[in-house]
Amino acid sequence: MDEIDCSRKDGDVEIRHPTHPGQYTEFGTEELRAHYLVEDLFAPGEIRTVYTHQDRMVLGGAVPRPGTALELSAEPPLRSEYFCERRELGVIALGGGSVTADGEEYELAHRDCLYVGRGTRSVSFSSDEGARFYLVSAPAHTEYPTRVARHADTTPAELGDPATANVRGLRKYVHPEGIHSCQLVMGITELAEGSVWNTMPCHTHDRRTECYLYVDLPPEHRVIHLLGRPDETRHLVVRNEQAVISPSWSVHSGAGTHRYGFVWAMAGENQDFGDMDHVAIDELR
Ligand SMILES: O=C(O)C(=O)C[C@H](O)C(=O)CO
Ligand SMILES: [Zn+2]
């Protein structure tokens, strides 16, 4: 296959084009990574963003230096005056810091979530503790209030079993019974010590794109993330704080060489968490 331009830049934003489920089977390791893996979202003193045409989600990382706030701007691909002019934004703090939205400061502890509604003109990030902020945005048709969900106040759904090495707690932050949004559904799943599998048995969801950001993985460890159609899977070897974009036709599951957690975020046709196309383990190939 000819080399393809799968991650061009527009301004400072990396652009990812959608792929057809017939294409990825022809991809080698580098093309798989260039299409589906987001490797370097977090850099000191920068806000980095990746615009995927999969449900037009934007993934980002903001890493403010102590004493200097970083302001989120509307980069050229958005063709808008300010970032949230037509978009909503979910933020997960990785470390303690604050987000200021239209002059209101929200203090976030590690793993807290801030939802920023459409129409918010200014959003900035600051931290004296070296926090990283993970950003996920989707187009929004109306305005919902900006709100915080605290990790400490959210009761996780307990999933999995020690016998299948997939004991994990799933916290929902942005969802129809929690923080209201137009499209975004977002939360965090944390594996128990000794568990390594996420989202197995796995699923696709034909009506949404889903992105995972892996966290809590020591530098020398990796997650083997499964993607592709259930009957023809491929894998990505993923480091800590790297993200994976899963098209609607792709499974999204993984096993780590160590316990870890991951931020999951979806956008698309509906917000029904249970709207999954389940795949039995014996259907996987
Ligand atoms: O551990 C899990 O299972 C998950 O966290 C699943 C994701 O939330 C997901 O894929 C939702 O569609
Ligand atoms: Zn899913």
TrEMBL record:
Pfam families associated with the record: KduI
Any one biological process term the GO annotation gives: pectin catabolic process
Gene Ontology molecular function: any one: 4-deoxy-L-threo-5-hexosulose-uronate ketol-isomerase activity
The enzyme's E.C. designation: 5.3.1.17
Cofactor: Zn(2+)
Top enzyme class: isomerase
Keywords noted in UniProt: Isomerase, Metal-binding, Zinc
Protein residues bound to Zn(2+): H203, H205, E210, H252
CDD domains for this protein: cupin_KduI_C, cupin_KduI_N
Pathway the protein acts in: Glycan metabolism; pectin degradation; 2-dehydro-3-deoxy-D-gluconate from pectin: step 4/5
Catalytic activity: 5-dehydro-4-deoxy-D-glucuronate = 3-deoxy-D-glycero-2,5-hexodiulosonate
Cofactor: how and how many bound: Binds 1 zinc ion per subunit.
Keyword Signal among record annotations: no
Protein family according to the UniProt entry: Belongs to the KduI family.
Function of the molecule: Catalyzes the isomerization of 5-dehydro-4-deoxy-D-glucuronate to 3-deoxy-D-glycero-2,5-hexodiulosonate.
HAMAP family (UniProt xref): KduI
Entry protein name: 4-deoxy-L-threo-5-hexosulose-uronate ketol-isomerase
Organism field: Actinopolyspora alba
